[in-house]
Amino acid sequence: MDFIEYIKLISSDYTLRTITLGTAVLGGVTGMLGSFAVLRKQSLLGDAISHAALPGIAIAFLITGSKDTNVLLIGALISGLIGTFWIRGITSKTHLKSDTALGLILSVFFGFGMLLLTFIQKMPNANQAGLDKYLFGQAATLVESDVWLMTIVTGLCLFVLLLFWKEFKILLFDKDYALTLGFNTKFIDILITSFIVLAIVLGLQTVGVVLMSAMLLAPAAAARQWTNSLGLMVFIAAIFGASAGVFGTAISATQNNLSTGPVIVLVASVFVFFSFIFSPSRGLLFKQIRLIKNRNALELQKTLAFMYHIVEDHDDISHPHAIKILNNFQGFSRKGLRELEDKNYVKVAGDMWSLTSTGVAAATNLYNQNQKDD
Amino acid sequence: MEKIAVKVDDLTVAYNYKPVLWDIDLQIPEGVLMAIVGPNGAGKSTLIKAILGILKPIAGSVTIFGKPYKSQRKQVAYVPQKGSVDWDFPTTALDVVMMGTYGSLGWIKRPGSKEKKRALEALEKVGMLSFQGRQISQLSGGQQQRIFLARALVQDASIYFMDEPFQGVDATTEVAIINILKELRKAGKTVVVVHHDLQTVPEYFDWVTFLNVKKIATGPVKDIFNDDNLTKTYGINYKVSIQK
Asked: Which pLDDT value is given to residue B244?
């Protein structure tokens, strides 16, 4: 991709600028709200909501005959909300688990939506084309008013998040406890869920029904790897989401107009992949490195402890011993011995080794420390 | 006769038509340290949850100091089972304890320095002050239990309900926790604990309630903690000699 060319494009091309802004705002708000969905273990809720929105789009078109985005999205919002509250109803009123309820609503609504779409396609007037863009999204259709709408919803969402921050946090961590403190957990729950539905519906035009849930999950899952603070997690998820929007749009604009929605989702997935491997505290790479380091350190400690046991029986700690003795002990290696020498714990002379006073002190400490840990 | 802290009348709770608690009448006097004992599935946790309004009973009523529970929430603190939350949640020990102040703050208002001071005091009381900044998943089971206890202490309530606070903690933590509970009692608080270890009941508690779907017995440990009630509750002939 030619970066300079892209910068030129974005400063001259109004459409590209609108789309970039739109996808950035969308990524930001879905990342933010996605953190809450992920922490509530409702990762699949987004998938169910976006699929549940499809029949709403079709019905809104059938009733109004209009293809105006706002009209269709209001339809999507209504059916998305109905789907969501049915899921809640099913899980609280029946024995079904939430994953079953989610799957059920997802497939029933999506199936019904597809049925309506095919019905609309067979209708005699020519106005029907283009509704299927909501399946996979078409960022190119974003116009300035869409971006404004997204920005307003994002601002509102940010305001509500800041206002009810403490309530959201306690609901996420310990719902029953929140209830005993006198908070109306149902209200907080409905508030956050409604915003998730709203954000998803806003993203349908850009990313589409099928991939929308990734916008919710990927930035949040990636952000969780980098922090242990809820506030930072929400913030980082918003940044990841917005960046995925910007980069995704840039890539799709400069590469023969690849479909934007899928590219954004792929960029977000790259963030996830990168975070899972390279995050310092939770990433796989550093976990593995820490494991190896710990193992080596333990090996050294074992060798040192063994040496200490031998030395203990002698009055003179610097009395040399044969390296051969260490062969009886499995943890011994030449490399380990050299490392102990580097730390000035051990002196090696030919085939003989002796502990230094630092080494003895370290070994004694080792025992004390172990006792403290018990 | 002392004041009644908690009064439960005709409480019945059912999951899917199967009664879990059947017609419970219970009076808990103020200032006692009470154990609720009974076999698995006896409804011990359910009883606490129903009293606290987390579960909806199909019948019955609960009053706290003679008034409906809903108007008395600030008098009551709850320590849920440790396993009921996700300890990988991105937050610190201090932050969890601060949640105990949320109730007195009410909606929207954020905790400030006063709340932080109270939380730190509670952390100190449970011996966890040096862990205040620790991510909660990095705490041991016993430490997590202490954090939950500290969170309830911050509420500065009159009545404490605790769901198995000794579950999965080592002997040191168990002693630390029971000492705090005894201190609470000394300060005139009422403490109700779901408890599993029958051996320690006489040592730790002064009141006991035997529960197995129905209430079997309730009263001072020295009067009613005997083989007869244990057998009635657990259904087997209970032969463990209990030292009083």
From this structure: 43
Q: How far apart are CA B226 and CA B158, in angstroms?
A: 29
Mean pLDDT throughout A57-67? 90
Beta bridge mates, B181 = none
Distance (Å, whole) CA B158 – CA B144: 23
- Across A14-33, b (16+ Cβ under 10 Å) vs e yields eebbbbbbbbbbbbbbbbbb
Look at residue A219 and tell me whether its pLDDT is greater than 90. yes
- CATH 1.10.600.10 is the classification of domain A3-282: no
Provide, as residue numbers in chain B, all residues whose Cβ is less than 8 Å from the Cβ of A164.
107-108
How far apart are the C-alpha atoms of A22 and A260, rounded to whole Å?
A: 12
In a mutational test of the A interface, the residue from B17, B99, B172 whose CB has the highest number of chain A CBs within 10 Å is B99
Q: How long is chain A? A: 374
CB contact under 8 A, A181 and B49: no
B171 touches chain A (CB under 8 A): no
In tens, the pLDDT along B26-84 reads 999 999 999 999 999 899 999 999 999 999 999 999 999 999 999 999 999 999 999 99
Query: Smallest Cα–Cα separation from B102: which of A327, A184, A267?
Result: A184
Q: Which of B54, B92, B135 sits opposite A179 (nearest CB)?
A: B54
Domain boundaries, chain A: 3-282, 286-373
Q: Are B204 and B33 in contact (CB under 8 A)?
A: yes
Does the domain formed by A286-373 have CATH 1.10.3470?
Answer: no
Alpha helices in A122-229, H assignment, sequence order: 133-136, 144-163, 165-173, 175-180, 185-203, 212-224
Is pLDDT above 90 for A6? no
Q: What is the mean pLDDT of residues A178-189?
A: 95
Residue B46 identity (one-letter amino acid): T
Which tens digits make up the pLDDT trace of A71-96? Answer: 999 999 999 999 999 998 998 888 88
Please classify residue B17 by burial: count the beta carbons closer than 10 Å to its beta carbon, then call 0-12 exposed, 13-18 middle and 19+ buried. exposed
